[in-house]
Amino acid sequence: MTRPDKGAIAEASRTSNELKALGLNNQRLVVNGVFHASDKTDAVANAFEALGSKALDEMPDNLRGLPQDQVPLRAFDTVGLPALRALLHSKTHASTSASPFTAPKMKQGIGLAALADELAQAGRGLIMVMGKGGVGKTTVAAALALGLVQRGKTVHLSTTDPAAHLAGTLEGVVDGLRVDRIDPLVETQRYVDKIMASKGAGLNEQERALMLEDLKSPCTEEVAVFHAFSRVVSEARSAFVVLDTAPTGHSMLLMDATGAYHRQMLREFDSHGTAHLVTPLMRLQDPAYTKIILVTLPETTPVLQAKLLQDDLRRAHIEPFAWVINKSILAANTHDPLLQARLTGEAQQMAKVENGLAQKTYVLPWLAQPPIGVEALGQLVARSESARAQLYQRDSVGKV
Q1: What global pTM score does this model have?
Q2: Of 45, 68, 44, nearest to 56 (Cα)?
């Protein structure tokens, strides 16, 4: 499954190759949400269609060779039996007649400038950007890191995402910003070398071979990535660290490891007292140390998945700091009937987030040109209205 989006297609291509490496060659590609403008005078709709078409035209060869189905973008959310049944009929449409729609005014407004300002006030700390795959976590993480640099801070921007899109999103080097990734293969080898050098130092060749075989367990990678994550978390004691996390499932496995380590340390220190014990989980639970930013799209399923993630975090006594609603069509000026018909549902999801789920909500509009590169990302967090307007006006399709 993919969407007609460059990043989503790249992720699908990577997944396809990984499955083929496992011998799973019976694959079929489904492209969901393919949009065709019905009003050729609507600049937003034309740009929306062109962006999707370009992504499909540039599809990697490994996906292009697969049997393919395309599901058109619908005027309704595909939730519930009637909507799901409608997907089976290519000519089934909800009513696309819509009166002019006025976007509701969000309390925190448009863009990430106010969020970057508030984060910068702490002087240091860990900022974790979380959410399901494809919602724009990497864009938000990179923009916030640049926003902190704009405000005179030194920042370490890292990622636990296997897809590792950070370098391609930034497309440049910035003074005061260090960018790297937690590479599972590199961290696993580093951990194995460390164990073999310490615990394997006094063993004979046969014993070392047995130890090395044991270290090939999948658990070794989990432990190694957790150690790397812990190092990154500890850096935030004296500087800003922005962490672009993996999609929700991978991130929760990391959080589970963090919780398991915390419980183990409590047991080991129980007889000696825990007054001086600080585990990574304790740092994540400290709102003065860690700020969790949840990223979602203004659609039913992404909002629900972000809510479930927030519920999981709260069970671990970690309270998210803010939500970012990405790619909002409400923030663009469109009169295309299909896009107009979707605005009511989008407004409902945005109101649900702001009025019942999030402590703070920030909105990024859909842009005809994705914010890639230092300049475009920096404008998402720029303080001045005119600087932010440059980003939206360069497309000649959006408005703040």
Answers
A1: 0.80
A2: 68
